[in-house]
Specification:
By secondary structure, the protein is of the alpha/beta class. It is 31% helix and 23% strand. It contains six helices and seven strands; from the N terminus they run βαβαββαββαβαα. The chain is globular and about 50 Å long. It starts with 7 loop residues before the first strand and ends in an 11-residue tail after the last helix.
Length: 211
């Protein structure tokens, strides 16, 4: 079923995801999850003990989409497709989330320096009783980083709202020697896969209807 007003709900605070959706002409309204409730965040981003990175990122994304969908119904909002996404950086099987402070950010960049790591972004689109999900995988190779460059970068605001402590679209671009996969996926929303899922939910992308 095609959404009547062609809009979707985006369950994400990420400014980068908003920019990427606008890039492909998708109209959206934000449907944000709460970080603070009497029971804590509506969706916890803590990994479960022994949970593999791909399982972790897929589970968190499904929980975000389900929570946003239920919020839409509870608030009696217009019924539209809900898009949720989550990105994680993985090196040596270790999940790197968003660094909480300067020491954690510098530790992450030292760990990534001179090495190749994976970036996993999982997407979920939920509409009516149907749910579609894709997890996109890219690899990124960092150059060997000087300690002074790590310090200078971590003194900016850029690392602290990004998985792995860096943003490929920002100043950290000078650290990156090679990527394989999806540039937009490393930013947090792989656009090819996003368009695939939104078309399944009936959203027009470049005037092509979903099926």
């Amino acid at each position: 079923m095609r959404p009547s007003d062609h809009k979707i709900y985006l369950a994400s605070k990420s400014a980068r995801r908003r920019e990427l959706l606008r890039q492909i002409g998708v109209e959206f309204e934000l449907l944000l999850l709460r970080d603070q409730t009497p029971r804590g965040p509506e969706v916890s981003e803590e990994a479960l003990p022994g949970e593999a990175a791909e399982d972790y990122v897929a589970r968190v994304t499904r929980e975000k989409a389900d929570c946003a969908h239920h919020t839409m119904l509870w608030r009696k909002l217009p019924n539209r497709p809900v898009l949720a996404a989550d990105t994680t950086v993985v090196v040596d099987g270790r999940i790197l989330g968003k660094p909480a402070d300067y020491p954690e950010a510098t530790e992450m960049l030292r760990l990534l320096s001179g090495r190749t790591h994976e970036v996993l972004t999982s997407l979920v689109v939920r509409h009516h009783d149907e749910t579609w999900q894709i997890t996109q995988r890219s690899t990124v190779r960092f150059a060997q980083l000087e300690e002074s460059a790590i310090h200078a970068y971590c003194m900016t605001a850029e690392p602290y709202d990004k998985a792995g402590g860096y943003g490929i679209q920002g100043m950290a671009a000078v650290f990156i020697a090679e990527i394989a996969g999806s540039y937009s996926g490393i930013m947090g929303l792989p656009l090819f896969e996003t368009a695939q899922l939104l078309r399944r939910a009936g959203v027009r992308i470049l005037d092509i209807a979903g099926h």
